[in-house]
Amino acid sequence: MRIAVEAVGGVERAGQAQMAESVAHSIESGEHLAVQAGTGTGKSLAYLVPAIRHAMTRGTTVVVSTATIALQRQLVDRDLPRLSTALAAALGRRPTFAILKGRRNYLCLNRVHGNAPEEPDDSALFDAFAASALERQVKRLREWAADTETGDRDELVPGVTDQAWRQLSVTAKECLGVHRCPVGIDCFAERARAAAGRADVVVTNHALLAIDALDDRPVLPEHDVVLVDEAHDLVDRVTSAATGELTANSVRLAARRCGRAVDEETADRLAEAGEGLEIVLREAAPGRLDALPEDLSGALRVTRDAAWTCVTALGPERTEDVEGSTARKLALALTEEVHDTAVRLLEAFDEPEGERRDVVWVAAEPNRPPAVRVAPLGVGGLLRERLFGRRTTVLTSATLALGGSFDTLARQWGLPPQRRATPAPGMATAKEAPSDTGGLTWTGLDVGSPFEHQRSGILYIARHLPPPGRDGLPPQYLDELTELVRAAGGRTLGLFSSMRAARQAADELRDRLGTPVLCQGDDSTALLVGRFAEDPATSLFGTLSLWQGVDVPGESLQLVVMDRIPFPRPDDPLASARQKAVSEHGGNGFLAVAGTHAALLLAQGAGRLLRSPTDRGVIAVLDPRLATARYGGFLRASLPPFWTTHDPEVVRGALRRLDAAAAL
Known about the structure:
Keywords: ATP-binding, Helicase, Hydrolase, Nucleotide-binding. InterPro entries: ATP-dep_Helicase_C, DEAD/DEAH_box_helicase_dom, DinG/Rad3-like, Helic_SF1/SF2_ATP-bd_DinG/Rad3, Helicase_ATP-bd, P-loop_NTPase. Its cofactor is [4Fe-4S] cluster. GO terms for molecular function: DNA helicase activity; hydrolase activity. The chain is an alpha/beta fold. It contains 27 helices and 18 strands. It has a seven-stranded parallel sheet with strand order 3-4-2-5-10-1-11, with helices on both faces. A seven-stranded parallel sheet has the order 14-15-13-16-17-12-18, sandwiched between helices. Strands 6-9-8-7 form a four-stranded antiparallel sheet, sandwiched between helices. The longest helix is centred in the middle third of the chain and has 26 residues. The two termini are 39 Å apart. 46% of the residues are buried.
C-alpha cells in the first residue's frame, strides 16, 4: 500500500490502510463488504491494490464498476496507469487494465461503411433543418471513424446528439456478430471486449454490470470479484437497466425496419398498432396504474400480436447479402423488444396488487412523446441472486451509512440486516455478519474521513423559515439566500430540488447581487463548473447532476445551499409504489423510500463542500423540517458531523470571516 500511495503522490492514511486490509480480507474470505469512506480517504487505491494483487496471483480478472464517467476516467487515465508502473517490480510484471462499456457506446463500422439503412427519427422526417443538422453530424462521425483508435463515444469532443449516434451504432441485439460481419475483425466493441478479456482489472459502469446480471449471456469477462464504487447509485442504475418503455414511435420504427424484410401487409399491421397506441397514450392521464385501463390493454394486445407476427415472418437466420442481414437483424432486435415489453406490461397485472413485482405507469414529459413504462418494484432479489450470490462484492462510497446504519441500503441491495455500522476504530473483518437466512454474509465498515468536519464546516438549518411550498421559492427563502451569498462574497453552490427553483433563484439574485450568478442550462455543465471554479466571486445554481457531480476544492466554494429536503415527488410512480409496498408489509414506507432518497442526496450535496483538507465552509439548508420534523434526526445522522447552528447571524458572520480571509 505504501508503494501505491507514494506513486500517486499521496500520504498514507489510517482509514485508507484499514479499508485496504478489509478489502483484502473480503476477497480472500468471500464475505461481501460495504465500506463508507469519506472524501479524501483515497478509497480507489484502497480497493485497487488488493484487487490487483488478487487478479495477478490467481490469474483472474476483477471488475470495477462506477456510476459516473468522471470516476471511470480518473481510474483509467490516472490511478491505474500510476499503479501499474508502481507495482510492476513488487508483482513481477505490470498489471493490465481495460475499460468496457455497452456496445451502443462504440461506433459500428458495419454501419459506418453503409451496410445498413439510415433511420431518421420522425422529427427529422418533417423538419428540413433537423434533417440537415443530423446529416452534418453523421458525416462528422464517419470522418471521425477513420481517426479514432477506440470508437468510444466519450472520446468524441464535442459530442453529437443521441439521434446522430444511433445512426452509426448498434445494440448487442442488433449486432450481426463478429463472424458474420464483414468488418467484424476491426470492430471497436469487439476489440474493447478482447482487451477486457486479457486484463487484470476491467473498469465498467453500473448499467453494464446490471445488464451482465440481467442477461443470461455474459457481457463482462469471467470474473470472481466485483468492486462497486459510487455504490449509493447502484439501485437506481440497476432499476433503470431493468426498466422497459413502449412508445408509438418505437412501434412505428419497428414497423419501418420490418418493412424492408417482411411483406407489406404484415409490417402495416404493426404500424397501425403504433397509431392505435399513440391515440390511447395521448388521452391517458400520466401516473401510476394500479389497474390496466381497457383501452390501453387493448392497444397493448394488438401491439403484442402484430409484433409477434413480424418476428415470425422475419424467421431464423438466413444466408443473404450483408445489407439484408443487417436490415433483418435491426428489425428483429427492435420488434422483439416491442413484443417483449408489451408482454411484460400486460403480465404485470396478472398477480393480485400486493404481490406484483413490476410497477407500470404512463409518462408524459416535456419535449418527449407519451410512453408507458414498466420497472421492477425492487431489485434486491436480482442483486442477491445474480451479483452477491455469484461473486465476492465490495461496495464503497462516501455515503452508505444512512441514519448511522448500512441496513437501509442493504435491504435495497437484497442483503440481510446487519443492524449497525462498524465504526472506524474497530476492525470489522474478523467477525461473521448476522444473517437472517444463514446464506449471504457481509460486513459494514465506516473508515471515517481525514477531514475534521466539526472544525472545518458548519451545518446551518434555517429553522425560522416557513416550510417550503409548492409554488416556487417563498420570498423569505430568496431573502435568506441573498444574505447568505452576499456574506460569502459569492463562492456559492446552490443545489435546488427543481430546475424551476434554480432559475427563479438565479434570476432574482442577479438583480440583487453585485456578483455573478450562473445557472445550470446556461451552458454545458462542464463549462459552467469551470467558470465557477475560476472566479471565487461567482455562484452556480442548479439541480440533480450538481448534487453529485461538482468537485471544486479551495476558496471558490465555501457555501453550499440546499433549498429543501430532496424528497422524491409525491406523484413519482416508482417511489410511491415502493413506499406503498413497504407500508403494506408493516414498515415505515415514507422513511424507507422517500427518507432514504432524501438522505442520500443530502449527504451527496453536503459532500460538495470539503474536497481537500484545507477547505472550510458552510452547508446551509433552508428547509426547517430538517430541524423540526420527526424524520429530521434520521436525515441529520446521514450527514457528516458538522458543527450545527440555527442562528442566521452566527453563520453570516462566519461566512464574512471566510470571505475576508480568502481575499488576503
